[in-house]
Protein: YrhI
Amino acid sequence: MKSAPKSRTEANKADKHARILDAATALFAERGYAGTAVPPVAERARVAAGTIYRFFDNKEALVNAVFRRAKQALGEALFEGLDLEQAPRPLFDEFWARLYRFAREQPEAFRFLELQDHHRYLDETSRHLERTVLAPVAVMVLQLRELGVFEPALPVDVAMAFIWGGFVGVMKAERDGHLEVDQRAVDAARDMAWRSCARVQESP
Amino acid sequence: MKSAPKSRTEANKADKHARILDAATALFAERGYAGTAVPPVAERARVAAGTIYRFFDNKEALVNAVFRRAKQALGEALFEGLDLEQAPRPLFDEFWARLYRFAREQPEAFRFLELQDHHRYLDETSRHLERTVLAPVAVMVLQLRELGVFEPALPVDVAMAFIWGGFVGVMKAERDGHLEVDQRAVDAARDMAWRSCARVQESP
Amino acid sequence: MKSAPKSRTEANKADKHARILDAATALFAERGYAGTAVPPVAERARVAAGTIYRFFDNKEALVNAVFRRAKQALGEALFEGLDLEQAPRPLFDEFWARLYRFAREQPEAFRFLELQDHHRYLDETSRHLERTVLAPVAVMVLQLRELGVFEPALPVDVAMAFIWGGFVGVMKAERDGHLEVDQRAVDAARDMAWRSCARVQESP
Amino acid sequence: MKSAPKSRTEANKADKHARILDAATALFAERGYAGTAVPPVAERARVAAGTIYRFFDNKEALVNAVFRRAKQALGEALFEGLDLEQAPRPLFDEFWARLYRFAREQPEAFRFLELQDHHRYLDETSRHLERTVLAPVAVMVLQLRELGVFEPALPVDVAMAFIWGGFVGVMKAERDGHLEVDQRAVDAARDMAWRSCARVQESP
DNA sequence: TATGAATGAGTTTTCATTCAT
DNA sequence: CATGAATGAAAACTCATTCAT
Structure:
């Protein structure tokens, strides 16, 4: 089921393309888009500066490609092969574990996605992806609310924004040195996230 | 009991200083530090570009001043005159209301503070302020945990990062067009925040 | 023989004028004309920057005034009350002593005069002064040559340039740390200068 | 026995480097360091302004490179292949001729070296070169003194500073229009220099 | 008249992009 | 195609000069 074997040249080319995206992701994540010059990206990717322009029209096209790849990777990390038939709490726990694994395994992509000035350079395609990728989460939240596991009055969009923000906040706190995120901390955050949505048991 | 009236010149000077900080806060919030050139800041502040350098040694000193003023304002908005003797839930609600008011009344300061990766340019004084200003929140969380209102196992640092991140996530979702933050949404987010920490009632 | 007493205001004014010239001489000597900003001159002179422009049309007028005062001072130091009737060697020694005293008592003026980029900003009046002030030296050299004390073939202009340059070279070497100019060194230089011109005794 | 021919590109690069140094030497010599802006240097070197910063970190690095090249060139012009075994007077005459040839063939380098107050921008390496290059002259003077050709009491450092200054003074006088330096003048200056050091014949 | 804050043109320096090799 | 030196427009910053007070 493999795709046709690529020629040496093509493989090489794909390789360079990936190296450029890797380098750009890392540097944009660290210094921001405006704060990153193109030549350092080239250097980190071990290509010439001019080569970047054979793959991407300009710096803005590059950052959009970086964004899309990162967002896609996030979507895959969260949902690929996810068993939606599980009981709510195990499903939620797996979701959280996947989120955390993504943040650890692709820290640059995660961090880049959380940069805040995206709106200045994202094109329509990227913006659309932004809206699409996390859509399954909305479905999950909606279902759990219907099932009576989550608060009936919980607004789905608020819930998603809050939980996502909460996770990001924890990871950002670590980067800023306010916190060390070990398994205990991740679990604590996960439990907070769950409780924030879960239906409160009425005392008898 | 007012302080002595300032001379025209002094008032003017303070004025310019403030106008520069205002302009810089707004533009840094919108475009990021590296993405903002000095002349647009000057133009927005209605001063010449060179004037900025009479008040601030360089662009980095300016962004640090912006940061400090914003952080101070946040601290004041959250804690000034806050009655810590209230019952836990009303106290928490007031805290949340103050947070929201700050985000609404000083949107640029809020946005600058929370939507930027500051670590590249903050100096030691600013970093110290960063650590200091929200310290009272930690105290609050700690007390509520001691009182048995919050989960006994709740790690204070994780809780703060998560709730803060959740709030930021909600405001960011609004800016990104994913959400409209009206009173209902704010209340929903507040309730999520509370539940995320609150001790779960054991079923009998 | 004093000039009419000046009013307080006039004295004050003359004072400021002198302070500005002093400050400018010192800073121009140290940093060069182009390397010296006007505000530091004002600060050193304890006047406001704008005040300088009440006394001098612009920076160029200021540097010309500095030049003229320094050159005049040099002329006076060298020739005022000089007894031209002395025997050649004592006359030469006194001349050298006066030159050295000027370099020591007005080091900034001396150093400023030896800066090399004067031609960029000196106006015609200053240039004329340049040519005039040292004219008496030419006369001295000429006479000594006529008297057979100096070499008969000695070109007056070369002799003046060489000796002046030699003295400057010694003082500059001190500034550059290559040399300490004490009395012994001054005397050695003086003797070199004398010998460089003096008629060589034929061996019998 | 030639070195391997350089590729077009390499030659071109070395060329640009040299052109920039040439242009900078000429302009710094004429207007001083602070008085020279970078774009005129670029224009004279027929490169873009930005190109200068590919070769030199900043303007200060450029002026240091200019200084070193000029000082090296002076050292070579004075000492390369100089036959130290000659009789004192012919050796001195050759030294003087070399000095004059340098001033004529590389007027900008000579002028830059001697007509600037370098101490504001020279780095340690340049300062070291400054002290090193003329060291052989000191040796020469010392030997001639030992041999009894020069005055026994002649202080070497004063002698060097005086003679060097004298030469510079003569060349400066020419540039200032006080003098025309033809062979006769050069010879006259050379003889002055010699006499300034030479042991005086006692009358019998 | 003196002040010194403000100005904005000019300076040094950076960097996205091109193009000869 | 890939390279990376070169470009020049734009950024950060300086400073001679002005003018409201």
